[in-house]
Amino acid sequence: MKGKNILVTGGASGIGLAIVKKFAAAGGKVYILDFNEENGQKVTTGLKAEGLKVEFRKMDVAVRQEVQQVVDSIDGNIDVLVNNAGVSHIGNLETTEEADLDRLYAVNIKGVFHCSKAVIGRMKSQGGGVIINMASVAATMGIPDRFAYSMTKGAVLNMTLTIARDYVKDNIRCNAISPARIHTPFVDDYLAKTYPGKEEEVFEQLAATQPVGRMGSPEEVANMAFFLASDEAAFLTGADYLVDGGFCKLKM
Predict the structure, then answer these.
(1) Which of 1, 17, 55, 58 is deepest in the core (most CB within 10 A)?
(2) Are residues 77 and 155 in the same domain?
(3) Of 22-31, 75-84, 165-174, 181-190, where does mean pLDDT reach its minimum?
(4) Whole domain around residue 229: which residue ranges?
């Protein structure tokens, strides 16, 4: 990744931060794009202190003008875009409100659209690039109480396929990663709010739903993103890669 510019949306925490660290440690210059300015600045300062090449840009992926302004502010090539920013929602068809649907659509779908559209011209003119979209196992299998979330991740997966097909002759590769349950701060916050006093018990129950018997780590997802962005994956485009501990294919 030496000499390459990498953009990671939602890069200030969780899976996004693990991806930032992985790419920066390999010599890339990583732009942390996140709407949370306080946290973004904090992690950027910490990573710079470790000698890593990282820059923070405050950006809301749901706002087209912000996305375009940030992309325009970046000099040189844009070698890799990781569309990682996303929001979740728990609810079925009956309990999902229109406002919930609009919120998820704005971030999970329009966010990928805005960021990909903002970089695609640069990638074409520079002779190629890589786009990696964070989908989910919910994109391809039914998961209880994930109506709106599953819908948006299904759209992310299909955007991945069409981008890959439309720009394969431009040397632009586009793939998706579909994680299952990954242990991030989001999971801990959810358990603390929803199951106060029973966090550890419920965590173990959720981990047990994975055939391998545990949740994945953000670093394991970052490893897949790094491989897909590398020259070793030069023959791979238009595919969805499960990082799921056997969740989709080995589910009991």
Answers:
(1) 17
(2) yes
(3) 181-190
(4) 5-180+217-243
* Active-site annotation, residues: 149
Element (H, E) at 98: helix 98-104
| Beta strands 5-9; 80-83: pairing state | parallel
Q: State the DSSP H helix or E strand holding residue 202, giving kind and residue range, or none if neither.
A: helix 199-208
Residue 249 maps to a domain:
no
Say how many Å lie between the first and final Cα of the chain, rounded.
Answer: 39
pLDDT digits (tens, 9 = 90+) for 103-113: 999 999 999 99
Both tokens of residue 11?
């890069």
**CA separation, residue 215 to residues 33, 204, 207, 211 (Å):** 26, 9, 5, 10
Distance CA 54, CA 11 (A): 11
In order of 3, 29, 69, 78, 168, the CA distances from 124 in angstroms are: 18, 20, 19, 10, 10
Tokens of 238: 């238009």
Q: What digits encode the pLDDT tens for the residues 13-51?
A: 999 999 999 999 999 999 999 999 999 999 999 999 999
